[in-house]
Amino acid sequence: MDRPLVPFGKPRTERADAARNRERLLDAARRMIAEHGVEQVTMDGLAERAELGKGTVFRRFGTRAGIFKALIEADEHRFQAQVLSGPPPLGPGADPVPRLVAFGRARIAFLLEHRALARAAMEPGQPLPGGDVDLTALHLRVLLAQADPDLPNPDGLAIMLKAALEGPPLMFLASEPPRPLEEVKLVLGEGWRTLIERLLS
């Protein structure tokens, strides 16, 4: 049986009009990024595109980096929803080993696809946005225990597997010449599958 996971981040209560403005701003930011790239998104430009006052944008995000943090957070929530209640093998209903493989592949794709947002969200002295619960390590720990209840040190293994997920995308992205994104996803996804299947064979 799947153990329940704690949702990403803390529940946020906000007025209906504030929630509408937030979604309006995030939608406008996504359109601007799709059309012009992350580099062209500014606080003033976002206010104009969303047809809202500049004060609303500054109150909502604080800084330009705050725009990208909010976008990553929203996408993280959607990713977690797929893990918790989406279709298998990423969601519940599949055996633990296929779920581990699917999770790793999906997480690698997520990290690679959000690389520009992650860079833009960085502020001096501040960590990248994240939830209060480390979903990746927790989810890996649960699935490892389901796959092999006698597996030694599942907590340590979950931490090491999390590092294996997050490190290789950064190394591939820093390589010269840069490799096509879909090729990187395929190479890392297959490497993850081999790692999991050999660990739990």
Automatic annotation (TrEMBL):
Keywords linked to the UniProt accession: DNA-binding
Keyword Phosphoprotein: no
Family annotation (PROSITE patterns): HTH_TETR_2
Residue ranges: DNA binding: 42-61
Short name of any one Pfam family annotated for the protein: TetR_N
A GO term, aspect molecular function: DNA-binding transcription factor activity
Highest taxon in the source lineage: Bacteria
This protein's name: TetR/AcrR family transcriptional regulator
Organism this protein belongs to: Glycomyces paridis
